[in-house]
Write a structure and sequence with these properties.
The complex is a heterodimer. Chain A has helices at residues 45-52, 75-85, 101-109, 118-124, 140-153, 170-187, 198-201, and strands at residues 4-13, 19-29, 34-38, 60-65, 68-69, 86-89, 158-162, 190-195, 206-211, 214-220. By secondary structure, chain A is α/β, with parallel strands linked by helices. Chain A has a single domain, classed as P-loop containing nucleotide triphosphate hydrolases (Rossmann fold, 3-Layer(aba) Sandwich), CATH 3.40.50. In chain A, a hairpin with a 5-residue loop joins strand 1 and strand 2. The radius of gyration of chain A is 17 Å and the shape is globular. Chain B has 23 helices and 20 strands. Chain B is elongated and about 120 Å long. The relative contact order of chain B is 0.11. Chain B has a nine-stranded mixed β-sheet. In chain B, strands 3, 4, 5, 6, 7, 8 and 9 form a seven-stranded mixed β-sheet that branches. Helices cover 53% and strands 17% of the residues of chain B. By secondary structure, chain B is an alpha+beta fold. The chains are: A alpha/beta, B alpha+beta. The interface between A and B is medium-sized, with 35 and 29 residues.
């Protein structure tokens, strides 16, 4: 059985005019896979991410993660799910400006009992020398590294990345992708990257293409490219 | 277009608009309410006195007054009317009541129920104690009144009696219980007991004003100008009458040599009960009304300024858009000004109305004077003043903040203000300290230093709130305790008797000796101690017959700073603190003492003794004797009650003029203060409201500034309590620091305020009950905790999606 299973998931945002953001969406992801969810803006990627990240419940369908149906989770269970199972990497890093590199990671580590040692994780992402710098003193790429370190330090089951390279130039972006891939391989964390950039998709094991709120294509890359090879 | 934008903005950020409005409302409301209280109450008092045609002067004479006296007074230039009347103190059911004759056109009573008397057996009675249909039996042997039993046919309130304490008399238990008004014909007197005089007043001559004082001086002078002539005339008249009767009866005329004809002229201070107390209370409330609202207004100003800054920061993109569209800076500023000023004006108007409608009646309650209802009085000057100040301040804040933002190029404005970057704070350099902190304490500490402005505001808000609540309770402590302290701890005798005639030894007190224990004879007289430029302080000189054990038992003289026991000896005098303060004297300095003949001598001060009511100079008998070379006789006795002794037992003796029981003095001192509770409640309630609004405002700003941070924490899996702690703990820490600062500044400021509201013959306690500190800190802390709850719910509302949004 698949590690993550989206089963006919639908999401309607209620309002004056109800909006169908996601409709009849199904896909599967295996444990340890590096998956890219690809699609243009407004396709429903973020909605999928929100539901998978435990920030929102779907209106219909089931989402099975490691055998549990998180679609039916109450707010309290979702909180624990986010806390222990999910690591989140944001497009704009979302580091706490007032905390140093090390403290940003420590903050996350406090949440989980199975967390890694913050300093070691930061060394892993190549920031062992910037432990006591504040976010404003770091470059964009470095900030995203801190964010990745913060996400994986909790030792989550799934790493969710929302346009992790969106705010970065090509060179830095590919280095971040490389890091994500390394993390995925080394720690066996199922990694899901959401992007509109089809070049990014070339490094994934599996590419799920989303359009108009539904899955239009699922492609398995037999030979994913090395992130170093891609340029945009 | 821009107007539409303003209106939309208003709908959009209703919470902020509303809190701006509320802050202005509370500030203006409290300020205007307190400010208008005294003028409103004074106006009622003045109208009341005018409507009842209250007397300005009263003339009494030892030999009674005649129609000739009345006519002579009426002829005086400044006298508007002189109306004779009869009165007598009588006992009814062992309680002293004063019987007045009904007079028309002066001191007019207000008929509460019933009707006017039709015959000599009917009377009008004090509505506070009697009902129509009651009968009042006069039990004392009174030859001056024909009727011995009156039927109450109407109840009234007389303008001569204000408040609950009607003053003292020399019959019954010494306290005047009540009063009645009876027809003139019910009196059995040849001459009038008093003549009430009203003067020709102008509109400026309102009670307690300088103008009224001057007018009264003039009136008194004129009355005094015919005084001796009338005294002589009356004396001759009485002598003639006596000679006639002596010739008829063949009696000796020995009595005649003792005849004394003198007038006593008194003003409202002596005739209208509570008149003096009112003046002191006006002064105190006016002072409090000036100081405390100032603190309020500063907090309000700071708060709105903060809100505006935040709003303009949040909307800089919009400003940039406008700016890049080519809309002039002035118009953009006007747009914001419209938003702010509409809120300010609405808040100020509602605040003014609420404040001036509801606060003066509350303040009115603390005054003993509450006969007519307080009428609403719209003070156009105060209203426009408040409005103008609010508008000016708000305009300054808005324009200043807009200018700051608009100075930047539109392109820069379109970009968000770069977030405040983290910085190493100096505390981190203190490794020893920093390493001891837990991770979350480090974060809290760093956050405190990050949001300096907001932290500063929180600090001021909570310190100010603590201070205001503290002042509310502390004022009560300081004023409330005075009676107990003076008549319970410092003066420890049970009663103080004023004698009719001076005596030399206690053996002379034959008729009261069996009613009292351990009597201490002393001589007490008063004079005005002059100082500075034409100022004076009324002081009592106390000369005890012996300054041994009994004196020390009754007059607990202790140093007002150290509390050390002071001994009265022949080296000099002991004075009380107010004298030392006003004359700027210390122990060892010399002070000029007057005797009753106004001869002056300089004496050394050997001590300054704790004292709260009146001012005293204590001199030993031997020293007084030496410097003035005068034999001393005694006019007062302090003593202990024998078991079961009542005031009337002492009063009913020939040698006693009046007696004051310490317990009564304590009680009446406490009664006068009771109304003060309302002011305390008012201050506490309004400060609390203000504190809540301020904290709410700061909390909202805190959350709105950190939306993204909060959303991120939630995505990371922080639960409600953890994010609440992360966001709010710094506020809580700052509030606690604020409370501590508030308490620290409270102590000296309390002294300053007490100093302001003290008058010449009262000193308030500097000591404050520990409980007041506790109340002030606990209340403020409770508000902070309430805001913690508010934060909790606000945090729950923050959408996690916020974290995904692009940085605009």
């Amino acid at each position: 059985m698949a590690y993550i299973k989206f089963d006919k998931v639908g999401k309607i945002y209620k309002g004056d005019t109800p909006v169908k953001a996601v409709d009849d969406c199904s896909f599967e992801i295996e444990e340890g896979e590096f998956v890219v969810v690809l699609g243009p803006s407004g396709a429903g990627k973020t909605t999928i991410l929100n539901m998978l990240g435990g920030m929102d419940n779907p209106t219909s369908g089931n989402i099975l993660v490691d055998g549990k149906n998180i679609a039916k989770f109450k707010a309290k269970d979702l909180l624990l799910y986010r806390r222990y199972d999910i690591g989140f990497v944001f497009q704009f890093y979302n580091l706490i400006q007032n905390l140093t590199t090390l403290e940003n990671v420590e903050l996350a580590c406090q949440l989980s009992k199975k967390a890694f040692k913050p300093k070691e994780i930061l060394k892993q992402v190549g920031l062992g020398h910037r432990l006591n710098n504040f976010p404003s003193q770091l470059s964009g790429g470095e900030q995203q590294r801190v964010a990745i370190a913060r996400a994986i330090a909790k030792n989550p089951k799934i790493l969710l990345c929302d346009e992790p390279t969106g705010a970065l130039d090509s060179d830095t972006g590919s280095k971040i992708l490389e890091l994500l891939k390394t993390v995925c391989d080394k720690y066996h964390i199922t990694t899901i990257v959401i992007t509109h950039n089809s070049l990014v998709a070339e490094v994934a094991h599996k590419v799920i293409t989303v359009k108009n709120g539904t899955v239009t294509d699922i492609k398995i890359n037999e030979n994913p490219k090395d992130p170093k090879e891609i340029v945009w | 277009m821009l107007l539409k934008n303003t209106i939309r903005k208003l709908k959009h950020s209703f919470g902020r608009y509303f809190s701006l409005l509320i802050i202005v409302l509370i500030g203006i409301g409290f300020y205007a309410g307190i400010q208008s209280s005294v003028p409103s109450i004074k106006k009622v008092q003045n109208d009341y006195y005018e409507n009842t045609n209250l007397m300005d002067l009263t003339v009494r004479s030892t030999l009674g007054l005649t129609d000739e006296d009345v006519n002579a007074l009426k002829k005086l230039d400044t006298v508007s009317d002189a109306i004779p009347s009869y009165s007598a103190y009588v006992l009814s059911n062992e309680e002293a009541i004063k019987v007045h004759s009904i007079t028309e056109n002066i001191n007019q009573y207000e008929l509460i129920s019933g009707r006017k008397p039709k015959n000599d057996n009917e009377c009008l009675a004090d509505s506070a104690f009697y009902k129509v249909g009651d009968t009042i039996k006069i039990t004392s042997d009174e030859s001056t009144i024909k009727t011995k039993e009156f039927k109450v046919v109407g109840t009234i309130i007389s303008p001569l009696y204000t408040g609950t304490n009607y003053g003292y008399t020399n019959i019954g238990n010494g306290k005047l219980h009540s009063y009645i008004y009876v027809p003139k014909t019910a009196f059995n007197l040849d001459t009038y007991t008093e003549i009430y005089i009203t003067g020709k007043k102008t509109e400026d001559d309102i009670p307690y004003s300088k103008a009224y004082e001057n007018f009264l001086d003039e009136l008194t002078n004129e009355v005094e100008s015919i005084q001796s002539e009338r005294e002589e005339a009356r004396l001759t008249e009485v002598k003639d009458a006596l000679i006639k009767s002596a010739m008829l009866t063949g009696n000796t005329n020995a009595e005649m040599t003792d005849l004394d004809s003198s007038w006593y002229i008194t003003g409202r201070n002596a005739e209208v009960t509570g008149y003096n107390t009112l003046e002191n209370q006006y002064f105190q409330v006016t002072t409090i009304a000036t100081i405390i609202p100032l603190i309020f207004v500063s907090i309000v100003f700071l708060m709105t300024s903060n809100t505006m800054t935040r709003m303009i920061t949040e909307e800089r993109t919009e400003m940039g858009t406008f700016s890049s569209l080519g809309i002039s800076n002035t118009r953009i500023t006007l747009n914001y000004l419209g938003y702010v000023l509409s809120g300010t004006i609405i808040g100020a108007i509602i605040g003014y109305l609420i404040g001036t409608i509801f606060i003066p009646p509350l303040v009115y309650n603390i005054f003993q004077f509450h006969i007519p209802d307080l009428e609403y009085y719209f003070d156009i000057n105060l209203f426009t003043g408040c409005l103008l100040v609010a508008i000016t301040l708000m305009t300054i804040v808005t324009v200043w903040n807009c200018r700051k933002s608009l100075k930047e190029k539109p392109a820069n404005l379109l970009r968000p203000e770069s977030p405040k970057s983290g910085k190493t704070i100096f505390l981190e350099k203190i490794k020893f300290f920093w390493s001891k902190l837990s991770f979350s304490s480090k974060i809290t500490t760093r956050n405190i230093f990050r949001y300096k402005k907001r932290v500063f505001m929180t600090l001021i808000g909570s310190a100010g709130c603590t201070f205001l609540i503290f002042i509310g309770f502390a004022l009560k402590d300081s004023i409330n305790g005075v009676g107990d302290k003076q008549y319970g701890e410092l003066f420890t005798y049970d009663n103080m008797i004023v004698l009719n005639n001076n005596v030399k030894t206690s053996q002379d007190l034959t008729d009261i000796n069996d009613k009292i224990k351990n009597p201490l004879l002393f001589n007490q007289y008063s004079y005005d101690l002059k100082y500075g430029d034409d100022e004076s302080l009324s002081v009592y000189v106390v000369i005890p017959k012996n300054n041994g054990e009994t004196f020390e038992d009754y007059f607990n003289l202790q140093d007002n700073k150290t509390g050390d026991h002071l001994t009265l000896n022949n080296d000099g005098v002991i004075i009380t603190p107010k004298i030392a303060d006003k004359l700027n004297l210390e122990v060892g300095d010399n002070i000029t003492i007057q005797n009753e003949d106004a001869e002056e001598r300089k004496l050394k001060i050997i001590g300054i003794a704790e004292n709260y009511i009146s001012n005293y100079i204590y001199i030993s008998k031997d020293l007084y004797n030496k410097i003035f070379n005068e034999d001393i006789t005694y006019n007062m006795v302090a003593s202990q009650n024998k078991k079961g002794t009542k005031a009337k037992d002492i009063l009913n003796t020939g040698s006693v003029m009046t007696v004051n029981f310490s317990d009564d003095l304590k009680e009446s001192a406490n009664n006068e203060i009771k109304g003060l509770n309302n002011i305390v409640i008012l201050i506490v309630v309004v400060s609390s409201l203000l504190a809540l609004t301020v904290l709410y405002n700061l909390t909202s700003i805190n959350i709105s500034e950190r939306q993204r941070e909060i959303a991120t924490l939630k995505v990371l899996g922080f639960n409600g309590r953890e994010s609440n702690e992360y966001i709010y703990r710094e506020t809580l820490v700052v509030v606690i620091i604020g409370i501590i600062i508030g308490l620290i500044i409270s102590v000296p400021l309390h002294r300053v305020i007490i100093g302001f509201i003290e008058c010449d013959d009262i000193m308030f306690l500097k000591m404050v009950k520990v409980l007041s500190f506790v109340y002030a800190s606990v209340l403020t802390l409770v508000f902070a905790l309430i805001m913690q709850v508010v934060t909790y719910f606000k945090l729950r509302k923050v959408d996690m999606i916020e974290s995904l949004k692009s940085v605009e």
